[in-house]
Amino acid sequence: MNLNFKAFVGALAVLSLASCSKNDVFDAQQAAANEIAQKKSTFENNFVAKYGQVAPTQSWDFSTNQQRLGTRAGETAIVTKTVEGLNFDVKYKVYREWIQDSWTTGHYNNYLDNRYINKNKNLLNNVSNKLKDGDHHYDVQKAVLVAPSNSFTIYPISVQGMWTHDLYVKVGNNDPVKVYSKTWTDYSHPYVNGDPLTYSNANYYEQTYKVETSVSMPGLYVEAPIGTPIEIYLANVKEGNTSQPTVGTSTGHAIYVDGNGAVPTGIEVRKDAVINYVGIEDNTTRSSDLDYNDVVLAIVGNPDVPKEIIIENNEYDVTTSLTKRYMMEDLGSTDDFDFNDVVVDVTETTVAHHTVKIENGVKTSDNVVEEKSQKAVVRHLGGIYPFVLKVGDTTFDEMGGKDTFDKDVEIEKVVTGWNPAQNNVSVTVKSEESQMYNVTNEFPKTGAFPMMFACDPEIKWVAERQGFDFKQFPGYKGE
Questions:
Q1: 3-class DSSP assignment, residue 371
Q2: Considering the domain boundaries, does residue 281 fall inside one?
Q3: What Cα–Cα distance (Å) separates residue 118 from each residue in 87, 115, 125?
Q4: Are the CB atoms for 168 and 232 separated by under 8 Å?
Q5: Cα–Cα distance between 222 and 50 in angstroms, integer?
Q6: Could you list the residue range(s) of the whole structural domain that residue 391 is in?
Q7: Which of these, 164, 198, 267, 303, has the minimum number of CB atoms within 10 Å of its CB?
Q8: Which of 390, 378, 392 is nearest to 422 (CA)?
Q9: pTM, entire model
């Protein structure tokens, strides 16, 4: 069971120590140890009878944000991978008309007509409402997107304009990922590079192209520790042979808007998924229309999307919080698996102060200083024995007992030294039943029988004597 019994106290016997011999004390301690061992064995047997054998690889940390914890030292890797884009099934015509400029020169003008979109039309309609042509946005600021506690995917959905560019996404300090390159310089390819154009009618002065194709640009799947900076920008922007500045989130040429109400089709989307849009303005000259729809991307959260934080004077703060709920048994009863004798939430809040340097539209350095604070809140007392709780380096005053049996409470204390990855939480229970020992239960090792487990704070404790349902956790390997 791997319980760590730190102390067996024989001083609680009715007889005083002054009248006890060394053998008497030893016998009392041995009796206490035998009693604990018997309870431990019975608890394990009853646990197996109810839940089945514990898998050797069973972890008792079911908190989902544990996987997103990470540090810049690399405890949790950043994952980016190209995925299939959103399909649109585009049908349209392009009329190409020759315009005579002089007796010897002229040029073609392209006119898009009869455009029809089958799949994901709702997404483009939503973009048209959120980022309308001609609607000026004057208050867009330099910003950074920071990763939530879950994965998300970035999908280019609309690429307009005549300028060429490369779309990049940079996650943390990893090398930027190029999502696509725009190489066309007219409006005959409004959604994806490489649409085939076939003549349906042609003469010297006018040509008609028909397009009927399924088109999509690649998406980018991202996993990163919570609070990781995300940059989205256009590089190598060119108007003919003239280079333009890099533009994007960190230069104040991208806007972040709520996209709820339009759910992408053709991909797996959670019911509670959040969807936002990033609109990028590629023109930094005075002639810019500032409608921020030259490139529009959908960010689909699983379920949350990155949060936008404004960069002021090349500085910004990212506040992240990690909470685990610990549910514990006190070994008072060997057939009780409600795990509500002690329920405590432990939270670590980190404020990361970033000082960045941006050159030519791209972040070139990011100095980070972190400050951490921790607190623990006891939420429920479901045992009849008094106990002492220890979280990290901090010990709570004794609490619990028959007077607080089955009570919801809120006992808060600032703590230090809690390691979310190691789950260094313990509870020492005083047995009034035998008056012979104290027993300390620590977080179970992988494959051990649990006297406590960790989960997300949204998980509610169960009623007295109601066995806890571990099957609700994807990481549970029992029957």
A1: strand
A2: yes
A3: 9, 10, 12
A4: yes
A5: 40
A6: 17-70+318-472
A7: 198
A8: 392
A9: 0.77
